[in-house]
Amino acid sequence: MKAKPLMTEFSVKSTIISRYAFTTVSCRVLNRASEDQDVEFQMQIPGAAFITNFTMLIGDKVYQSEITEKEKKSRDRIKEKRNKTTDDNE
Asked: For this UniProt entry, which residues form the secretion signal (predicted)?
């Protein structure tokens, strides 16, 4: 039986300044298996919130994510829906 990853630490720190909440979430996961495996991390955030940074530290290596603007993403979804509607009508 494959050993499941174990969450060893979890913390949330929020600072509120001028109606804005700055929240840092830290999670440490231990891979107890002898081989690499994926770990899924889920978190609910308010609909009006947006992510400005997502960084992972694996071993001694830092992985910095690329954040896509919410506005651009929404426009892309609208275009996809329009294209799908157009394709469905053909």
From this structure: none
pLDDT tens digits, one per residue of 57-70: 888 999 998 888 76
Do the domain assignments include residue 43? yes
Question: Residues 6-41: pLDDT tens digits?
Answer: 999 999 999 999 988 888 889 999 999 989 888 888
Residue 1 lies in a domain: no
pTM: 0.58
Q: Which domain holds residue 27?
A: 6-89
Domain count within the chain: 1
